């Protein structure tokens, strides 16, 4: 079984994903993680921060306010996150939308280039300018695939846990896999206030705990255990 964790876009509601991950992480180990927009940031962060530290990052290091095209807010935050030493060995992938070219662009993040690719994956039109990386221009990965389940499947994932954040883009076939979504009325995706982030984080922890208690999760763990025992 090749398990992938898929993180979707959704701005400040990415704190919800951190809460879900803090509940799931002690019980699972993915072969890779992938995300669009703020989901790419969380995907990268799972390789750099312990689950509890990621929750703390959302409370203390994430910006308290983001304004359209404001400079000196999000980019430095991403740069500092990109520089953290590796903690987990699974690959982290980011989804971006290339300008003037079809489809999505998927990149395996490395310490040397993570900050630029994360900024590109989060470059939501109307809020951030396109980002140029390696000679090409990119915008938010969620413009074409907000919850990149189909991309994870194309990359070989045979089991997927999708953790959404209520982004605005299309989610091709996301309903075909376990999909943990923020509850209705959780908060606006552009509300970066600490109070909103705390609320989203707590909701994520609750949603993660509920999913761990589900039959679906137990079945996933059983399949994974059998594969390990059989050496597969």
> Helical region count?
8
Shape: globular
Radius of gyration: 16 Å
**Could you report the average pLDDT, rounded to the nearest whole number?**
91
Task: Tell me the major beta sheet.
Answer: 8 strands, mixed
How much helicity do the residues have?
A: 25-40%
β-strand percent reads: 15-25%
Distance between the termini: 7 Å
Task: Supply the helix-strand structural class.
Answer: alpha/beta
Residue runs with pLDDT of under 50 for 5 or more positions: none
Spell out the helices and strands N to C: EHEHHHEEHEEHEEHH
The count of β-strands is 8
Summarize this entry quickly.
With 232 residues, the chain is of the alpha/beta class. It has helices at residues 14-24, 38-46, 51-60, 74-82, 114-121, 149-154, 194-212, 215-229, and strands at residues 3-7, 32-36, 92-98, 105-108, 131-133, 136-140, 159-163, 179-180. This is Patatin-like phospholipase family protein.
Descriptive labels:
8-stranded mixed β-sheet; about 230 residues; Acyl_Trfase/lysoPLipase; lipid metabolism; 8 helices; NTE; 8 strands; PNPLA_dom; single chain; alpha/beta; hydrolase; globular
């Amino acid at each position: 079984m090749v398990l992938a964790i898929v993180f979707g876009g959704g701005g400040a509601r990415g704190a919800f994903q951190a809460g879900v991950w803090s509940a799931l992480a002690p019980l699972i180990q993915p072969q890779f993680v992938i995300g669009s927009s703020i989901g790419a940031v969380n995907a990268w962060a799972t390789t750099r921060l312990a689950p509890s530290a990621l929750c703390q990052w959302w409370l203390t290091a994430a910006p308290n306010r983001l304004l359209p095209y404001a400079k000196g807010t999000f980019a430095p935050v991403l740069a500092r996150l990109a520089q953290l030493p590796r903690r987990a060995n699974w690959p982290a992938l980011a989804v971006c939308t290339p300008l003037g070219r079809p489809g999505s662009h998927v990149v395996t993040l490395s310490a040397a280039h993570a900050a630029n690719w994360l900024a590109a994956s989060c470059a939501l039109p109307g809020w951030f300018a396109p980002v140029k990386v390696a000679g090409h221009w990119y915008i938010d990965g969620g413009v074409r695939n907000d919850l990149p389940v189909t991309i994870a499947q194309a990359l070989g994932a045979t089991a997927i846990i999708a953790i959404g954040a209520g982004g605005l883009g299309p989610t091709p076939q996301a309903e075909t896999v376990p999909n943990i979504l923020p509850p209705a009325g959780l908060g606006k995706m552009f509300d970066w206030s600490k109070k909103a982030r705390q609320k989203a984080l707590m909701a994520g922890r609750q949603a993660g705990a509920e999913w761990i208690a589900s039959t679906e999760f137990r079945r996933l763990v059983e399949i994974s255990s059998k594969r390990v025992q059989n050496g597969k």
